[in-house]
Structure to design on (168 residues):
Protein backbone atom coordinates (compact mmCIF):
# COMPACT_ATOMS: atom_id res chain seq x y z
CA UNK A 1 0.00 0.00 0.00
CA UNK A 2 2.91 2.35 0.70
CA UNK A 3 4.11 2.22 -2.91
CA UNK A 4 0.91 3.85 -4.19
CA UNK A 5 1.29 7.01 -2.16
CA UNK A 6 4.19 8.50 -4.19
CA UNK A 7 2.07 7.99 -7.33
CA UNK A 8 -0.73 10.04 -5.79
CA UNK A 9 1.71 12.81 -4.84
CA UNK A 10 3.09 12.84 -8.40
CA UNK A 11 -0.42 13.10 -9.86
CA UNK A 12 -1.23 16.01 -7.56
CA UNK A 13 2.05 17.74 -8.43
CA UNK A 14 1.35 17.38 -12.17
CA UNK A 15 -2.05 19.05 -11.79
CA UNK A 16 -1.38 22.68 -12.61
CA UNK A 17 -3.88 25.23 -11.38
CA UNK A 18 -4.63 27.98 -13.87
CA UNK A 19 -5.53 31.54 -13.02
CA UNK A 20 -9.04 32.61 -14.09
CA UNK A 21 -7.53 34.70 -16.93
CA UNK A 22 -5.39 31.80 -18.20
CA UNK A 23 -8.37 29.46 -17.92
CA UNK A 24 -10.57 31.87 -19.92
CA UNK A 25 -8.06 32.00 -22.76
CA UNK A 26 -7.63 28.23 -22.73
CA UNK A 27 -11.42 27.72 -22.59
CA UNK A 28 -11.86 30.05 -25.59
CA UNK A 29 -9.50 27.84 -27.60
CA UNK A 30 -11.28 24.74 -26.32
CA UNK A 31 -14.64 26.11 -27.48
CA UNK A 32 -13.30 27.44 -30.78
CA UNK A 33 -11.99 23.99 -31.73
CA UNK A 34 -15.52 22.49 -31.77
CA UNK A 35 -18.98 23.22 -30.40
CA UNK A 36 -19.18 22.55 -26.67
CA UNK A 37 -21.99 22.57 -24.15
CA UNK A 38 -21.75 24.39 -20.84
CA UNK A 39 -21.39 21.15 -18.89
CA UNK A 40 -18.37 20.01 -20.94
CA UNK A 41 -16.66 23.36 -20.35
CA UNK A 42 -17.62 23.36 -16.66
CA UNK A 43 -16.11 19.87 -16.24
CA UNK A 44 -12.94 20.95 -18.05
CA UNK A 45 -12.59 24.06 -15.85
CA UNK A 46 -12.91 21.94 -12.70
CA UNK A 47 -10.25 19.65 -14.18
CA UNK A 48 -7.99 22.69 -14.54
CA UNK A 49 -8.31 23.36 -10.80
CA UNK A 50 -10.66 26.36 -10.75
CA UNK A 51 -13.28 27.11 -8.11
CA UNK A 52 -17.01 27.24 -8.81
CA UNK A 53 -17.29 31.03 -8.58
CA UNK A 54 -14.51 31.53 -11.15
CA UNK A 55 -15.98 28.78 -13.33
CA UNK A 56 -19.40 30.41 -13.50
CA UNK A 57 -17.81 33.78 -14.33
CA UNK A 58 -15.76 32.21 -17.13
CA UNK A 59 -18.82 30.42 -18.53
CA UNK A 60 -20.78 33.69 -18.45
CA UNK A 61 -17.97 35.43 -20.33
CA UNK A 62 -17.79 32.62 -22.91
CA UNK A 63 -21.53 32.97 -23.50
CA UNK A 64 -21.24 36.76 -23.84
CA UNK A 65 -18.40 36.37 -26.35
CA UNK A 66 -20.44 33.73 -28.24
CA UNK A 67 -17.92 30.95 -27.66
CA UNK A 68 -20.67 28.98 -25.91
CA UNK A 69 -24.21 28.67 -27.23
CA UNK A 70 -26.35 25.76 -26.03
CA UNK A 71 -28.82 25.94 -28.93
CA UNK A 72 -26.03 26.01 -31.50
CA UNK A 73 -24.34 23.07 -29.73
CA UNK A 74 -27.58 21.06 -29.62
CA UNK A 75 -28.26 21.62 -33.33
CA UNK A 76 -24.70 20.67 -34.30
CA UNK A 77 -24.76 17.62 -32.04
CA UNK A 78 -28.13 16.38 -33.30
CA UNK A 79 -27.28 16.96 -36.95
CA UNK A 80 -23.92 15.26 -36.67
CA UNK A 81 -25.12 12.23 -34.76
CA UNK A 82 -28.04 11.79 -37.17
CA UNK A 83 -26.02 12.17 -40.38
CA UNK A 84 -22.81 10.45 -39.37
CA UNK A 85 -23.74 7.86 -36.76
CA UNK A 86 -27.34 7.33 -37.97
CA UNK A 87 -28.81 7.95 -34.52
CA UNK A 88 -32.55 8.43 -34.05
CA UNK A 89 -34.38 11.16 -32.15
CA UNK A 90 -34.75 9.07 -28.97
CA UNK A 91 -31.00 8.50 -28.57
CA UNK A 92 -30.16 12.09 -29.52
CA UNK A 93 -32.61 13.47 -26.93
CA UNK A 94 -31.21 11.13 -24.28
CA UNK A 95 -27.62 12.18 -24.98
CA UNK A 96 -28.51 15.88 -24.95
CA UNK A 97 -30.34 15.49 -21.63
CA UNK A 98 -27.25 13.74 -20.25
CA UNK A 99 -25.30 16.88 -21.15
CA UNK A 100 -27.85 19.02 -19.24
CA UNK A 101 -29.19 20.76 -22.35
CA UNK A 102 -32.54 22.53 -21.85
CA UNK A 103 -35.78 21.09 -23.26
CA UNK A 104 -36.12 24.17 -25.45
CA UNK A 105 -32.71 23.60 -27.09
CA UNK A 106 -33.38 19.86 -27.46
CA UNK A 107 -36.67 20.62 -29.21
CA UNK A 108 -34.97 23.11 -31.56
CA UNK A 109 -32.22 20.58 -32.35
CA UNK A 110 -34.67 17.77 -33.12
CA UNK A 111 -36.65 20.09 -35.43
CA UNK A 112 -33.50 20.48 -37.54
CA UNK A 113 -33.79 16.83 -38.65
CA UNK A 114 -36.00 16.73 -41.74
CA UNK A 115 -38.76 14.12 -41.55
CA UNK A 116 -38.07 12.85 -45.09
CA UNK A 117 -34.39 12.30 -44.28
CA UNK A 118 -35.36 10.58 -41.03
CA UNK A 119 -37.72 8.12 -42.76
CA UNK A 120 -35.17 7.51 -45.52
CA UNK A 121 -32.48 6.71 -42.92
CA UNK A 122 -34.73 4.12 -41.27
CA UNK A 123 -35.41 2.55 -44.68
CA UNK A 124 -31.67 2.38 -45.39
CA UNK A 125 -31.05 0.78 -41.98
CA UNK A 126 -33.82 -1.77 -42.65
CA UNK A 127 -32.27 -2.69 -46.02
CA UNK A 128 -28.78 -2.94 -44.53
CA UNK A 129 -29.88 -5.09 -41.59
CA UNK A 130 -32.08 -7.30 -43.79
CA UNK A 131 -28.95 -8.35 -45.73
CA UNK A 132 -27.17 -9.32 -42.50
CA UNK A 133 -29.97 -11.42 -40.99
CA UNK A 134 -29.88 -15.07 -42.05
CA UNK A 135 -33.17 -16.19 -40.43
CA UNK A 136 -35.92 -17.23 -42.84
CA UNK A 137 -38.71 -16.80 -40.29
CA UNK A 138 -40.26 -13.37 -41.03
CA UNK A 139 -41.21 -12.69 -37.40
CA UNK A 140 -37.67 -13.36 -36.17
CA UNK A 141 -36.20 -11.24 -38.98
CA UNK A 142 -38.52 -8.34 -38.16
CA UNK A 143 -37.83 -8.68 -34.44
CA UNK A 144 -34.07 -8.49 -35.04
CA UNK A 145 -34.46 -5.49 -37.37
CA UNK A 146 -36.67 -3.62 -34.89
CA UNK A 147 -34.29 -4.40 -32.03
CA UNK A 148 -31.26 -3.17 -34.01
CA UNK A 149 -32.86 0.02 -35.35
CA UNK A 150 -34.52 0.87 -32.02
CA UNK A 151 -31.11 0.51 -30.35
CA UNK A 152 -29.91 3.33 -32.61
CA UNK A 153 -32.64 5.53 -31.11
CA UNK A 154 -35.45 5.32 -33.65
CA UNK A 155 -39.08 5.06 -32.55
CA UNK A 156 -40.43 1.49 -32.61
CA UNK A 157 -43.85 2.41 -34.02
CA UNK A 158 -42.18 4.16 -36.95
CA UNK A 159 -39.96 1.13 -37.58
CA UNK A 160 -43.00 -1.20 -37.47
CA UNK A 161 -44.88 1.01 -39.94
CA UNK A 162 -41.98 1.00 -42.39
CA UNK A 163 -41.46 -2.75 -42.04
CA UNK A 164 -45.16 -3.28 -42.70
CA UNK A 165 -44.91 -1.15 -45.87
CA UNK A 166 -42.00 -3.31 -47.04
CA UNK A 167 -43.96 -6.55 -46.60
CA UNK A 168 -47.22 -5.29 -48.17
Amino acid sequence: MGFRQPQLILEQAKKITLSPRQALLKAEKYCAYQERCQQEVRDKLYEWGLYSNDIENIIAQLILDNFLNEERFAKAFAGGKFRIKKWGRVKIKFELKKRKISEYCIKKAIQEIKEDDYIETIKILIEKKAKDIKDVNLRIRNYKMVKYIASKGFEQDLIFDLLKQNTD
In short: The chain has three domains: 5-64, 70-111, 115-167. The first helix runs from residue 5 to 14.
